[in-house]
Write a structure and sequence with these properties.
This protein has 709 residues and is α+β, with helices and mostly antiparallel strands. 29% of the residues lie in helices and 25% in strands. It has five domains: 157 residues, PH-domain like, CATH 2.30.29; 84 residues, Pleckstrin-homology domain (PH domain)/Phosphotyrosine-binding domain (PTB) (PH-domain like); 197 residues, Rho GTPase activation protein (Phosphatidylinositol 3-kinase, Chain A, Orthogonal Bundle), CATH 1.10.555; 87 residues, Ubiquitin-like (UB roll) (Roll); 107 residues, Pleckstrin-homology domain (PH domain)/Phosphotyrosine-binding domain (PTB) (PH-domain like). One of its GO terms (cellular component) is cytoplasm.
């Protein structure tokens, strides 16, 4: 397999390769940029005869508990033969089958249920009808063999797929759309542990994606993104997000789509204490390791006692638990002086709590033996042994050692000499807290410390770091050191900004930046540069996990939201998003009255008739009988498009407004703020434009669009 990148399509070793049917495999905004692609000519595939395609040569039999469309048939003798699956009450197959027959050629999906271990099948009755049947077969053994054999019968027959299918969790036919700019195409998809493979009909590429690198999945999408070839769908597709692209997937039947969603959600959880189960960056480093190192490199390289002073135990445990729960959406923000020590403790604890050490036990004796040599050739021995590690382990080891080398080079400030760091990270990288009964003796600890000293001292030689890489890294370190020395920590911190959609592309800005500066920077990002009419993009403050959004006014600083509100609210539910603003601001499209709207007050779910009026810099609220209920200054109100899912407004066009300075305001309360429902989208836009233009920080001549919807 060759890792390829779609700029001219070249491999990572510089070789040029060409592909057939490349028009179906456009690289615009799709996950294939970060996928491993295996090439193969469909024309050269060895086709099997029709008997094999229909599974006529396959024979399987076993007892299984059977559920068909939620009806429990109890234990039946399930037989697969002559291209069909059926079940009898006895293994003599007397009389008509209790269930079936279901023809293998009509199977849309087959896979192992991640919760109860049963085999899930989605089968169409026949090609002339749209009626689908869901079967669940719970058997004692050979679940994977059944899935693998059935998949091989129903999948497109070509050498490429047959070679790749080894140890399946699930497989089936689906419709696939690579990114937002491509068309839908029929194809085939299967899951093998942490690897998701898919192939498009007529395309000579098999795409391989690592589920551990997915940064999110969305299962509720706008109908504009649904596959038009799927008839009668009520749920639509789901969207897989990975750094650099996205992938839309929809099965021909909603139930099969939901089964894929459940399976991938389970795989994406990556729970447990195996390094191989961790959420990964594009460089195959655990996300928790990457984020901790970046945080310490940004804020803590010069802190005295780095990695030798412990953080408060409760904060360390809490932060580590949050990381294990959702490492992708866990963002570290500088807080108290202990925060650096807390993050450093979390990094060490992550390694110590693994089920096996980062450097496996089976190679440690070889490494210790090499470390005892005085011959310079031992560096080559180190290299040969370490390069035999799985990619995740060698990439993680290289990343942590590279970071620790940066730390030790600033020992004059942080007092973290190679000797001190080796004493801490020797046991951390070579042993774990629990597990296989391998205890560290004093002699073993000394060997671990000496080995880490060697790895840090000769890091560049052992890992073959080029002179160019060393020069670039040295310049970066000098700039980092100069920045840390000349800037007070209170000057600001980095804030992530998402582009186009959450977790699709992100970049960092200083918290002291205002919205206009952020938009200028975002328009020059690669993900936006090729978009049409980028001046109609805007920065949005998203809260309540994206249920509510507010267009950020040009003068607003990022710190006014992050430290001014989010830290007191729920930071994990808030983020900044730069995306297209569909309706540019127009003074002609504004109206200072919102008549006959439906309003739900703070904490309330029910809506009643009301009226809003903009008068003299105030927003006045009148009830149905035109009696004034309340009024607020426009500059004290934050207006968000949308509503919380717990509210059920009578109209879909809603605004939610809050008064964050009000003593009665509580972000975490149910049904936060006032919710206003409008009969039409135009009425909502007219009112919103009116209140925006009345606010003190409104800039009509700003180059940034000003509409929030």
């Amino acid at each position: 397999m060759v890792d390829l990148f779609h700029d001219g399509i070249s491999s990572n070793n510089g070789c040029e390769r060409s592909f057939d049917s490349s028009d179906k495999c456009s690289d615009v905004g799709s996950l294939q940029n970060s996928a491993t692609m295996i090439t193969h000519s469909w024309k050269r595939s060895k086709k099997t005869n029709g008997q094999d395609i229909l599974g006529h040569n396959l024979f399987l039999s076993a007892w299984a508990e059977v559920i068909v469309c939620k009806k429990d048939y109890g234990k039946l003798w399930i037989v697969v033969e002559q291209g069909a699956l059926a079940g009898w009450a006895s293994n003599d197959k007397d009389g008509n089958p209790a269930v079936g027959p279901y023809y293998l050629k009509n199977i849309l999906y087959v896979g192992k249920n991640p919760v109860n271990g049963a085999i899930d099948l989605h089968v169409r009755e026949n090609f002339l009808c749209s009626h689908w049947t869901n079967l669940k077969l719970k058997m004692v053994a050979e679940v994977r063999k059944w899935i693998l054999d059935i998949v091989k019968c129903i999948m497109p027959k070509n050498e490429l797929l047959l070679y790749s299918v080894r140890n399946l969790c699930a497989g089936g036919s689906v419709w696939i759309r690579q990114g937002t700019a491509c068309a839908w195409s029929s194809g085939w998809m299967f899951l093998d542990e942490h690897k998701l493979y898919y192939a498009l009909d007529g395309c000579a590429i098999l795409f391989e994606l690592d589920v551990r690198k997915f940064i999110g999945m969305k299962s509720t999408l706008s109908k504009i993104d649904w596959c038009a070839s799927v008839v009668g769908s009520m749920k639509g597709p789901f969207l897989l997000l990975q750094e650099g692209g996205s992938l839309f997937v929809q099965a021909e039947y909603d139930s099969a789509t939901l089964t894929w969603i459940d399976l991938l959600n389970h795989q994406m959880e990556c729970s447990g204490y195996r390094l191989e189960d961790s959420k990964l960056t594009s460089d195959d480093v655990p996300v928790i390791v990457d984020k901790c190192i970046k945080f310490i490199s940004t804020y803590g390289l010069l802190q005295p006692g780095l990695y030798r002073r412990n953080g408060p135990n409760f904060e360390v445990r809490s932060l580590l638990a949050e990381f294990r729960k959702d490492p992708v959406n866990m963002h570290l923000l500088p807080g108290s002086g202990d925060m650096i020590n807390v993050v450093a403790d979390v990094l060490r604890s992550f390694f110590r709590q693994l089920d096996s050490p980062l450097v496996p036990y089976h190679i440690q004796d070889r490494l210790f033996a090499v470390a005892s040599l005085k011959d310079p050739a031992r560096l080559d021995e180190y290299h040969e042994i370490l390069m035999g590690l799985p990619r995740i382990r060698i990439q993680t080891l290289r990343r942590i050692l590279d970071h620790l080398k940066d730390v030790t080079e600033l020992a004059y400030a942080n007092l973290a000499t190679i000797e001190n760091v080796a004493k801490i990270f020797g046991p951390t990288l070579f042993s774990v807290e629990q597990g296989n009964g391998v205890d560290n003796s004093f002699t073993t600890t000394i060997q671990q410390v000496n080995l880490v000293k060697d790895l840090l001292t000769y890091y560049a030689s052992i890992f073959r770091i080029s002179a160019r890489e060393m020069i670039i890294k040295s310049k970066i370190n000098m700039l980092q050191e100069k920045s840390n020395q000349t800037k007070a920590r209170a000057d600001g911190f980095l804030v992530p900004v998402h582009i186009l959609e959450k977790d699709n592309h992100t970049f960092n800005v200083q918290s002291s930046s205002n919205a206009e500066q952020v938009c200028d920077a975002a328009r020059n990002r690669p993900a936006v540069r090729n978009e049409v009419d980028v001046n109609h993009f805007a920065l949005f403050e998203e809260i309540k996990c994206g249920q509510l959004e507010r267009r950020v006014n040009p003068p607003e600083k990022m710190s006014s939201m992050i430290t001014g509100r989010w830290l007191d609210w729920e930071p994990a539910e808030c983020f900044l998003l730069f995306k297209r603003d569909p309706i540019p601001y127009s003074f002609r499209l504004s109206y200072p009255f919102a008549d006959d709207v439906r309003i739900a007050e703070q904490g309330a779910k029910s809506f009643s008739v009301g009226h809003l009026k903009l008068e003299g810099g105030l927003v006045a609220y009148y009830n149905k009988g035109l009696k004034k209920v309340n009024e607020w200054h426009t500059d004290d109100i934050l207006w968000y498009a949308g509503h919380e899912s717990s509210r059920k407004p009578p109209y879909p066009h809603t605004l939610t407004f809050i008064l964050p300075k009000d003593d009665n305001f509580k972000y975490k309360s149910k049904n936060m703020g006032y919710c206003v429902a409008f009969r039409a989208a135009t009425l909502r836009t007219q009112w919103l434009n009116a209140v925006i233009s009345s606010q003190q920080d409104f800039h009509e001549n700003s180059s940034m669009p000003l509409v929030q919807i």
